[in-house]
Every structure is written in structure tokens, then in C-alpha cells.
Structure prediction request, 280 residues.
Amino acid sequence: MPRRRGAIITIGDEVLNGSTLDTNSHWLCTQISGRGALVTTVVTVHDDPTAIQDALAYCIRTEPDLIFTIGGLGPTIDDRTVESVARALELPLEINQTAIEYVQKRYSDLESQGIVDRDVSASARNARKKMALLPTGAVPIYNPVGAAPAVVIDVDDTMSVLCLPGVPAEVRAIVSRHASGILERRLGSGFLRTMTIMTSTNDESVLAEASAVLTREFVDVYVKTRPIRQEGGRIGVTLTASGNNQAKIGVLLDTAFQRLTTLLEEYGVSIVRCRVDNAD
Prediction:
């Protein structure tokens, strides 16, 4: 079965001007990879409709199963994501009744908590209504933390776009709970394993040939060497593999580890310790 693929588009001037750190993309990468899928693209663009449409067109060309957009779902004028996605997919916008109900429920909850005022202006009510203006055929997804619903659009039988808000707590709550079925449908439920190996050398060049040989012999294992600052600059090696069969992944990594041990011995390098990290 071909490996499933995901792409991420982060949208926001605040990310590109450095005032906000994008932790969402990193977390979503762990969610995609943890299912055994491949992240094809991570791109960040301004709150500009043309930039958003161009980024979406680029991601579609990489043929992912699921495209995430992050940010730009709110009530203000700079929140242009849904509108831009609708234009890119040539879909008209319409008020979605389920989305209206979600927005009303969230503001009722926020009012009861004293977070927002109960009595607001007509312009504020219209701004809230904007969050329920969705592309035809789109499905809103409940946001248990913020006000703006997430939105999922099936582009065709093989690809969907999932539009998420930009607040990290909202992203995690939606993806982990209310949108988990979308990820299951498009990305599956595979496994990712990473074996982290600490070597006895501080010289990464000493490991260059060994890592090259291992990469050629184990095409389904991602081999990466890097110095570990906390270890005084000692070189660590990570072996990463993913797929739908957890047992086969384990055997593959174990075999690659044994081969790496032999290769390192040829260069007088020993293994200090080894750790396996599971992401599923």
C-alpha cells in the first residue's frame, strides 16, 4: 500500500514577522508521521488570499491525502483562509447552519464564563456570523476551546483540506478529539518508530561513510547523524521507520541497528547507549 501523505500550510503575518512562534506545524508533523504517513510540505504564507491560494495549489500538486491549513478562521478582516480556500477550489460560500450553531454555542459558553460580554454590537454579531460562512459542501468541526469552527472540505475521493484555527490549544483539541476521524480516514493509523543511538565519537565526519552505506542498504529507514549538545557534542544517530505493521518496523530497525554496529566497529566507534521512541 502506498504511503499516505500530508501537507501543512501555516497562515499569518505574525508568524512571518517573528512575533509568534509556529509550534503548530511541528506538532502536526508528529501527528502525521506518528500515523506512518509522510509530510510532503510545510509552508508559511502571509494573510493574503493570493498567497494562500498559491500555497494550496502547490500542496495539491504534491498529491497529499490531507492538507492542513492553520490560522485565519476568526472574525476579523485579516482572517481570509476559508474565503481563499473556497476560491482556490472554485466553491461558492454560503452560511452553514451547523457552523452557526457551533459558533452560538461557543459564545454562549464564553459568556457564561465571563470571558466575553453578553451584549455586543450589531457589527460584532456580523463578525461572528462570518465564521459560519463556509464553502458549499464543507463540514464544520466543533472547536471546544475557541469560537471558530474548523472546516473540512473533500476535494475529491482521495484528498481533503482541513482548515484549523491558529491557537495551539485549539489545534490540539480539535485534531485529537473532534477531527480524529478525518485523520483516520485520510492518513490511516500506522506507526512510527525512532531509534536514537549515542556513539562514542565527537566527529560526525567519521560516521559519514557508515551512514551512507546504511542508507543504501536500508532504503526504508531514515538515517540521520547529528551532534548532541547535552552530550558534550557526541554524535547521535537516529534510525526512523514507519508503516502499518508494528512488528515489521521493529524487526527492520533491529536489523539496521545490528548492521550499524558492525559498520561503526570498522571505524573504531562504539555505541554508548540506544533508545527507541514510539509515536502512535
